Model the fold of this input.
Amino acid sequence: MNSHAIAAGHAERLATVDALLPEMPALEPVEGSVSLSATAGDSAAAGLSVRTEAGPDSVDSPWRALVEHRLEARLTGPRPEAALDALLTRWDEHLKAVAPPGDAETAATVVRPSRDSPGSAELLRRGFAPVLVIAVRPADRLAVTGPPATPGVHIRPAEADDLETAVGLELELQRYDAQFGSVTLREGAEEAITADLSKQLKRENPTLWIAELYGRPLGMVRVQFPGETSWIGGRVAADKVGYLSSLAVAEPARSSGVGSALAAHAHQIFDECGTEVVLLHHALANPRSTPFWYAQGYRPLWTYWQRRPAVS
Done:
């Protein structure tokens, strides 16, 4: 079965799984990629393995291994789990030839639609774990009056004087998420975060807001508006896609309503500019962020299954 036929079967199968999944055409090779295919009886799979690198000082480096091998898969037939298992066998053969065994700065990652559950057991047997989710929230179109006020909480655009507060909140968030495998603490993280947030604070249109609890700055939220989200917009069936980059609340203010107020503020802003859906990443094992985001109207759309190191 050729890759286009597999992709057509894959799309037909997923159309019944999740209406917010985008069209997924046949996989086209890119520079540095390796095409893979496998069959299991009357089921078939096509895959594309892409190797990427990040420098240890890059802004992206805390959120990934420095060398990542990512597999995109298309599955068709009555037993997609068997097709995926056969494809993973082929991929493991490839990884053993190109990835040094035991290197903790390598990762093998499979990104799958969250509601496409066949194949999950096969990934678990091969040492993969679901570590990260892209969650989606369709727009609410709230009234122009905005969300209800939270007692004691005031939200305002961040200013230059808020840089130290914002950096501290971002570092606290990274340290917490590092417990769950979705973040790697890096030397120089504070410098990289400071440089990134400094750029955000110089923008004419604010993308960073501070929450004060009875006058103390104890939370923040960062967003990307439609027009800035092409890097992730293809993951959802919508044209105007917003991205919630991060939401952080200092430990003393947790469970005070600051986080919910920040989320509601961000959603109001997204609604006002006509955003159709909002996406965000969160650590699946995080016992705080997972229930929090789903209480705000999000649900899983894509799940990152990861094995680190890529080859044991």
Observations:
- Helices lie at 3-14, 80-98, 120-125, 163-177, 189-201, 230-233, 258-272, 289-295.
